[in-house]
Amino acid sequence: MALEETAPVERPLAISLFGDFAVLDAQGSDISISNRRGRALLVLLCLAPGNAIEREQISKLLWPGRFTQQARASLRQCLYDLNRQLQPFGSDILQVSHARVAIKPAKICTDLGTLEAALSGGDAHSAIRLLNETSGNTLAAGMAFGEPLEAWLAGRRLQIESRLRILADRLSSALNAAGDQRVAEELMTAWRMRENPTRRQKRVGVAVLSFAQHDEIGGEFYLAEGVVDELYAHLGRVSDIAVVGRTSVDALTGLGLMLPEFAERLNVAYLIEGMVRRTLSGVFITIQLIDGPSGREIWSDRLEGTVETFLNTRQVFSARIATNICRALGVSMTTGTQRRMTANREAYALYLQGRSLVQRSMSEGAVAKAVELLEQALQLDAGFAEAWTALAEAHVHTAVYTPCVERVARSEQAAICAQRALELDSSQGHALVLLGIHEWTRFNPGAALKYALEAYQLEPNNADVSVRLGSFLLYLGRTRAALPYIEAAIEQDPVYGRNYGMLCIAHLNLGNHDAALAAGRRMVDLGMPGLHLATVQAACGDHASAIETYYRTRLLMGSVITPPPGTGVISEETRDLYWTTAARGVCSGEPDARATYCQMLDMLHAAMADPYDPSIAWPAIWMGHASLVMKLYRERMHPANMPGLMSLWTDVEPIRQIRLHPEFISFAENIGLVTAWETYGWPDLMPGDPRLPQ
To answer: Which domain of life does this protein belong to (predicted)?
Structure first.
């Protein structure tokens, strides 16, 4: 009996999306796609195989500026050419209808799809190899067909990177749970090596300095602040530019630094400075782009007009300036979604003043005045999305930096403002992370992390967004996953001491003591309290230095450190006695000193106006006072005390006694941690569900 002939199995085409685009046939030979837009179309479709894209959208992305009929005709010709070039290889890979175009998933095999399959399927060794192979290679690179396509690709890249990161984190957690810590560490090292060079080395560091302002007329005039605000907004959306945060620039302003010194301290290649001058004859704006190391001007521009002209067309003229700066830097300008600002001149001036005060929230009375000014701005224009976000941040800062008793209520007010901002402008990533903060107070950290991940997709260059995402992961015990975001926030805002505090604890949690000490010292150098540095010194066994560092922090009481709500003025003698007890209890390593301070915290918890104040919660964690910590956080979590959660994951005595307490998992369930872990992966120190049979 004759054997039946079987049809040859058709192998899918191999397509490379990372770095240089390539299409290979079944024998591994290159298939040349001569049509540039045909290659770009394949890339668009391969980023999400099986998902159809509207023909109308493809036409606008690949043929921007052409008449609609002309663009449609060009797409028809492009599809015809693609089919003609691929048919000799037996590859009918496109699924084309009158309205949509898709690529058949079974007909292709992409490097992106292979990487996702390895990560989701638990093939760690293949995932590590693929991550190393794609290190430094941009996804869908070289697609230079104008700003609409670049903006579209930027959004897709962020979504894909976020998806890959979650898959890598989950696989790492599974490996740790299986006891394969070595491979888990190799995986996360490969991820960081692939991610960080792509994100950092290819971006140009730029700092926008405060503009000088000369006014010959008098009265309120905030145009200089407005120009800087618009430049931050436009340049912050350019994927190839890393704009340093305002907090770091403000920290160095007024120190009398030369321009090269500014650039060196901010770790940037370029500076932007300028001046706004108002006279009886009009307003004059000059802007210079400065080479950081030399201080030499490499580009400048001058604009003239009236205040009304600049305010009414500020997005237009600032977009023009940003485009010219990008051209001078040799990078592509990405338009993205325009901010929904106000047309009301008075509301805009109030917003600029209020937002500036929010950035100085540690100054006495600053944040209260900021709330007042921002509320006035919104009375004039209730549709001003940026002002709603700024007001939300002001409410959070009130809860954190002032002796406020109703901290959860302030957080709720912030959430209401953030929600209003998002209703007006869904691109407000910062508003999303502020919503996330309130979810922690509602014992819903899973929702908080979801908001933060969405925010990062919208604003990956915003230091406040990066650090909030990193902090939420730290609170969940996902320190390895948190570290790149915290490092990114420091890159974006390198002279902001708060961020170094998180970096200090992240390294301590990972056992990187030298790096933790360096971050803690940098935090203190920038004027922040040394409490985290002291905990690192104690963990390293240097108890004498730890006690000294902790005790010295008393000098910041009433300035950087807010007194607990309801406490009056105390004498220096009483203050020093308290801080002596605290320093020895937290840092000496002596059980008796620790027991004495724990007893004092129990009494303060029973007596203080805010029994959940960080002055109680944080040292309770550092001393491993498990019963008080679990009671306190079960009853109330608010924006001021929640940063203490990141220290729960320090694997040293006596802090680890909280995590090892028999009631810890029940506590974690009560405050929502377990639900978040089940969705986003278990902590580094708890790689699997301890409730399951071991």
So the answer is: Bacteria
